[in-house]
Specification:
- The structure is a single chain.
- The protein is α/β, with parallel strands linked by helices.
- The chain is 48% helix and 13% strand.
- The strands form four sheets. It has a seven-stranded parallel sheet, sandwiched between helices. The chain has a six-stranded parallel sheet with strand order 8-13-12-9-11-10.
- The structure holds adenosine-5'-diphosphate and zinc ion.
- Adenosine-5'-diphosphate is lined by residues 16, 19-20, 23, 40, 42-48, 295, 297, 323, 581.
């Protein structure tokens, strides 16, 4: 336990001048011994919400996290701040574990990170009942819910904590959860008597782009070269094979790209993750197995070469960009084919039908986002239950609005054609019928006699394909995966036909927005003065040297944001330096002098 008020701890230990958003409210609530459920976007500052109460309350703070591979990094980062922390999990050597356990018994440790499997063993529970516990923090709390996107059965047993340790406050935290998942978390973790804190979900510094997949490889390469040369990013691919292929190809193009997926040797995986965390220009090409809990602040872009499972997963994955608050990009390439693949996965899984329905529904919402003709951010924020907001001005749709047209007649023709051919054919056949083509298949099914035969010659094939996609996205038609992509009409579609509603559709321009066009330059994160840029580069180099010596990721020493502030303020004394965000007492003592020296040398050389 450390003495001091939360604000003093924030300033002295972490070096931050003020609390952000709801942090103060959460912290006071938990210090007073209450339970809490905290929803904050990635990068919102959840960790402080349990770390500071753990420091203020008597006893050890127990942090439950599924992210074994990252625990050691978290612990090292805390130690640099002067916080007594440790981790217990299957990856730790036994002697280290016994050291941590001894420290827990002696009251010589403030925070202990532990995986749920370990926590729930009889030995560990009995250890806990013998010592004083400050709080339980349940990180990545969505793992407790089957409705969330990363269900972990062990998490459901965490309810035991409520029963065995009724006097100890519990705080559950997550970055993603829609309303049903939230309710489920509160119920399963018995948090109904606590308070729920929901922060705004917006990540205004992330610019969203969603484009059709045409020549994705080449476009991605251009996008990286043009906007993110020499920076860190994540590229998500759907399969292990694609990960390997894409990483190899990017390397051929001269990029520092590394693969990461669950099929790799665990030593290689760990090595690649480490290289990414410690690197300043590494591109991680990965399946979604990568990323949870990665708190690297300087990821400048996240690209998806396939569509994600649902909006929550998308928001979580893209949320890994720009945690430092500086401008970042999210770029998704999508195709109807990917959607069909994902539907196939859902169908083939051995989940219950009710569960499958939820997943299909969530995927539909995601497709709606892809085909949207209004602000992407607004759609996502509304999905998460944030109040209606204005168009953001920082997504591809806001920046270059797509052209729309009155698609009423086109939609009527498209839907009638589905009806007239018996609601079981895919887009290819439907378009042939609309075009009046006498193909073998058309003749075999007698579709040349359908009343919609040849009524759609005004649009080419790609136009009709786009119209069908949009009608599916808008819920007027649905694709039956079990029937090989056969399209049928929904109730909404029937109502549209009957009530002669009007409908606007996105115009097909022949060239759908590509990464190249969709992308306009993000506001520069660069420093203006050339001398400042040089100083920034020098400080980065110094940081890199220190990081290598100490075998730490550079950002654990100081964030880019802190370096920028050092450059702009050019402090000449430790005292002056201590006012800079991100420089607490321990870091000031440890690194202050060397950074002051570097700044002074640079000043002397340039004046
Ligand atoms: P989350 O766990 O919600 O994704 P973190 O707790 O990792 O986010 O915080 C994101 C970043 O913001 C971290 O680098 C953290 O040090 C920083 N941060 C948190 N709270 C504050 C604050 N009050 N002022 C400045 N920076 C903060
Ligand atoms: Zn927008």
């Amino acid at each position: 336990m450390m003495h001091g008020a939360p604000l003093d701890i924030l300033r002295n230990i972490y070096g931050y001048p003020e609390f952000r958003g709801q942090q103060r409210a959460v912290i006071e609530h938990v210090i007073a011994g209450n339970n809490a459920f905290v929803l904050m976007p990635t990068g919102g500052g959840k960790s402080l919400c349990y770390q500071i109460p753990a420091l203020c309350r008597e006893g050890v703070g127990i942090v439950i996290s599924p992210l074994i591979a990252l625990m050691q990094d978290q612990v090292e980062a805390l130690k640099l701040l002067g916080i007594r922390a440790g981790a217990i999990n299957s990856a730790m050597p036994p002697n280290v574990i016994s050291g941590v356990i001894a420290a827990m018994r002696n009251g010589a440790i403030d925070l202990v990170y532990v995986a749920p499997e370990r926590l729930l063993t009889p030995d560990f529970l009995s250890l806990l009942s013998e010592i004083r516990i400050a709080l339980f923090a349940i990180d990545e709390a969505h793992c407790v819910s089957q409705w969330g996107h990363d269900f972990r059965p062990h998490y459901t047993q965490l309810v035991a904590l409520a029963e065995r340790f009724p006097g100890v406050p519990r705080i559950a935290l997550t970055a993603t959860a829609d309303t049903p998942t939230r309710t489920d978390i509160v119920e399963r973790l018995r948090l109904a008597d606590g308070r729920t804190f929901i922060a705004g979900f917006d990540r205004p510094n992330i610019r969203y782009h969603i484009v059709e997949k045409k020549n994705a490889k080449q476009e991605l390469l251009e996008f990286i070269r043009k906007f993110h040369a020499g920076e860190c990013g994540i590229v998500y691919c759907l399969s292990r094979a694609k990960v390997e292929e894409m990483a190899a190809w990017l390397r051929e193009q001269g990029m520092n790209a590394l693969p990461y997926h669950a099929g790799m040797e665990s030593a290689d995986r760990a090595r690649h993750q480490d290289a990414f965390l410690k690197g300043e220009s590494v591109i991680m090409v990965a399946t979604i197995a990568f990323g949870m809990g990665i708190d690297k602040p300087d990821v400048r872009f996240v690209a998806h070469l396939h569509i994600p499972k649902n909006i929550e997963a998308y928001y979580q994955e893209t949320g890994r960009a720009g945690r430092d608050g500086l401008p970042a990009d999210a770029m998704m390439f999508y195709s109807a084919g990917d959607a069909a693949t994902l539907r196939g996965f859902i169908e083939q899984s051995d989940a219950q039908d009710s569960q499958k329905r939820i997943e299909h529904h969530k995927l539909n919402a995601l497709l709606g986002l892809c085909e949207a003709s209004c602000c992407r951010r607004r759609i996502m924020l509304e999905y998460f239950g944030d109040a209606e907001s204005n168009p953001c001005g920082n997504c591809d749709i806001c920046l270059t609005p797509p052209e729309t047209f009155d698609g009423t007649v086109a939609a009527q023709k498209a839907i009638s054609c589905v009806y007239r051919t018996g609601q079981r054919f895919g887009v290819g056949q439907l378009v042939d019928v609309l075009h009046g083509k006498e193909t073998e298949r058309v003749l075999r099914f007698g579709h040349n006699h359908a009343s919609t035969f040849g009524i759609g010659k005004e649009f080419g094939k790609p136009q009709w394909q786009s119209i069908y996609r949009q009608l599916v996205a808008q819920g007027l038609l649905k694709v039956d995966v079990a029937q090989h992509g056969g399209i049928s009409i929904t109730e909404h579609g029937l109502r549209f036909l009957k009530e002669k509603e009007t409908l606007r559709l996105r115009k097909y321009t022949g060239k759908e927005r590509t990464a190249r066009e969709a992308r306009t330059a993000t506001p520069p994160a660069m420093l203006e003065q050339e001398a400042d840029q040089q100083l920034f580069a020098a400080l980065k180099m110094l940081r890199r040297e220190l990081a290598t010596q100490e075998n730490l990721p550079p950002y654990v020493i100081f964030h880019d944001k802190t370096l920028r502030e050092l450059v702009l303020r050019k402090p000449f004394s430790l005292d002056e330096m201590s006012g800079i965000s991100g420089i607490g007492q321990a870091k000031l003592a440890r690194y202050g002098e060397v950074f002051l020296k570097a700044i002074a040398e640079h000043q002397a050389a340039t004046s």
